[in-house]
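SAMPLE LOG
Freezer: B-3
Tube label: C17
Construct: single chain, 206 aa
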Amino acid sequence: MVVARNPLLLMLYSLRMSESSTDSNALAGKTIVLGVSGSIAAYKAADLTSELRRLGADVFVVMTRAAKEFIGSITLQTLSRNPVVTDLWKEGDGWQPGHIELADKADLLLVAPATADLIAQFANGLAPDALSSIHLATRAKVVLAPAMNGKMYEHPATRENLRVLVGRGVRFIDPEEGELACGYEGVGRLAKVESIVEEVLGLLTS
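STRUCTURE (predicted):
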């Protein structure tokens, strides 16, 4: 159900990290919409944004209302060097809705962290906000990196939602096992930034 981490891609990523700036354009010309949902792991979106930008990608961050409780939009706007979408009803003045424009231009919709609520919205075709609306409108590849309490991750409803999305071609990056923000030990920690970037490189450069 989830994306296996490929040692060869990880090695490629490590090599790219150590190569010259000329080779840091692996994602040049690619547009990535980075969705951030309401998990304490949302702070890692800053490092992820920086690394995707370093590799040459044009990154547009879209935050849920809950995500703003964990990280400020100004941080991600500064790192991405693009406006951050936080409200479906406060978009630009152009003739075309901003979320539809992003959905059309995206090469990849990456959501990290993806909460149980966000995964349920995607699985059921709901569109209450900008991020879920982009998911319905885009024809780009979709990758989700879950982050949540382990019991929530293992709940039959969440497992069924994951199965539904996999059947539609959505790819998942395994959460890690360890101490969670709630104090429990288990599976549910957001995958390392390097692992997420490795998956993005594999999808967009192969």
